[in-house]
Design a protein that fits this description.
This protein is 35% helix and 14% strand. By secondary structure, the protein is of the alpha/beta class. Helix 6 runs antiparallel to helix 8.
C-alpha cells in the first residue's frame, strides 16, 4: 500500500480479530482524542468474512447493498485526522490519539444501534429482517457486544479526564435515498439510483454535524461546530447541522454523547467528496488528496480545542 496520510498505521494489541481494529498514534496513554468509526467495515473482505458464517438465506446480490450503505472513506479519513492531531499534540506534549475501526458490516448488524430499539424511516435497523436463523442472531449479537465492550473502555479512557474529546466519524451517500431494508433491498436501491430517479432525492450537505438530540438539546463541544462550518465554507464545501437527521435515541452515538455531553462530536462526510470516484454498488477507492483536504479543517479545529482545554 502506498505511503500517505490515510494509510492505516500498525494495529494495537487491543484490536479484536473480526470485530475491530484499534490504532494509537502519538503521545502516552490515556489518549486525549478518540475517533470511532462504527461503520468502518468498508471492504468486501469484511462482508465475506461474516457472510460465510451465516445460515440465513440472504437476499440476492446483498453485497451491492453493502457497497451502497457502508461508510466508504471513513477509516482513511479517521486516520488522516488522527495523524495530523497526533503531530500537533506531540509538539504540545499532551496525550495521543486512539482510532477504533469496526470490522463488522452494518449489512448484518448495525453497531451504531441500540439493538431492539425502534428506528424511524430512513434508518437501518440494528438487526435486519433477513437475518432469520437464531444462530446468526447469536453470532452477530456476540460481535456487537465484543465491539462495544472494547469501545466503551476507550470512551472511558479518553473522556474520563476533563480535556478529552471523542469524534464519531461517518460518511453518507450524496442523496437521502429512502427505501425499506428488507429482502428486496437491492432491487429497491437499484430502482432508486436510476438516472431518471436519483436526482429527485434530497441532496445532502458535504459535511453534516449531528449535534442535537430529539429535544433539540445540543450535545456537541461548545463552539466547535461553528468554527468547523466556517472552515469548510472557506474550502467551498457545504455544511449543515442536523440537516439529515439528529442524534436518535436508537443510536449508540446518542448514548455516548448523552453520557458525556459537550465532549463528543458526530459528523458525516459525503462519500462522493472522498472517492476517486465513489460508485454506489461496487468497491470504490478513496482519493488521498480528497481525504487530506477534508481532514485538515477537522484536525486543526480538534487540535485547537484540545490545546485550549
Amino acid at each position: 500500500m502506498p505511503d500517505s496520510e490515510s494509510t492505516l498505521p500498525n494495529r494495537s494489541s487491543e484490536s479484536i480479530p473480526g470485530v475491530c481494529e484499534v490504532f494509537r498514534l502519538g503521545g502516552p496513554r490515556p489518549a486525549s482524542l478518540l475517533i470511532e468509526v462504527p461503520h468502518g467495515a468498508t471492504e468486501l473482505v469484511h462482508y465475506d468474512a461474516v457472510a460465510v458464517k451465516l445460515e440465513s438465506p440472504l437476499p440476492p446480490n446483498l453485497e451491492q447493498f453493502f457497497h451502497v450503505n457502508t461508510d466508504f472513506g471513513a477509516p482513511e479519513l479517521a486516520v488522516a485526522v488522527a495523524r495530523r492531531v497526533a503531530t500537533a499534540k506531540q509538539k504540545a506534549r499532551t496525550g495521543g490519539v486512539v482510532v477504533v475501526r469496526a470490522l463488522v458490516p452494518r449489512t448484518f448488524v448495525d453497531l451504531n444501534r441500540e439493538i431492539g430499539e425502534t428506528v424511524t424511516a430512513g434508518m437501518t435497523p440494528g438487526l435486519p429482517p433477513y437475518i432469520t436463523a437464531p444462530t446468526d442472531r447469536d453470532l452477530l449479537l456476540s460481535l456487537y457486544q465484543q465491539y462495544h465492550g472494547a469501545v466503551s473502555k476507550l470512551y472511558r479512557e479518553v473522556l474520563g479526564k476533563e480535556s478529552g474529546l471523542a469524534v464519531a466519524l461517518h460518511t453518507f451517500a450524496p442523496r437521502s435515498v429512502e427505501v425499506a431494508v428488507d429482502a428486496d433491498i437491492v432491487g429497491a436501491l437499484r430502482a432508486a439510483y436510476r438516472p431518471a430517479v436519483f436526482p429527485g432525492w434530497t441532496l445532502r450537505p458535504g459535511v453534516d454535524f449531528i449535534t442535537a438530540d430529539d429535544t433539540g438539546t445540543d450535545l456537541s463541544p461548545r463552539g466547535l461546530v461553528a468554527s468547523l462550518r466556517a472552515a469548510y465554507s472557506d474550502l467551498g464545501v457545504s455544511s449543515g447541522e442536523n440537516a439529515t437527521y439528529h442524534l436518535h435515541p436508537a443510536t449508540m452515538g446518542y448514548r455516548y454523547a448523552a453520557a458525556w455531553p459537550g465532549r463528543t462530536l458526530c459528523v458525516e462526510f459525503r462519500r462522493d467528496l472522498l472517492g476517486s470516484p465513489w460508485r454506489p454498488f461496487v468497491a470504490s477507492a478513496a482519493g488521498p488528496r480528497k481525504v487530506a483536504r477534508l481532514a485538515a479543517p477537522l484536525a486543526a479545529a480538534l487540535s485547537r480545542t484540545l490545546t485550549a482545554g
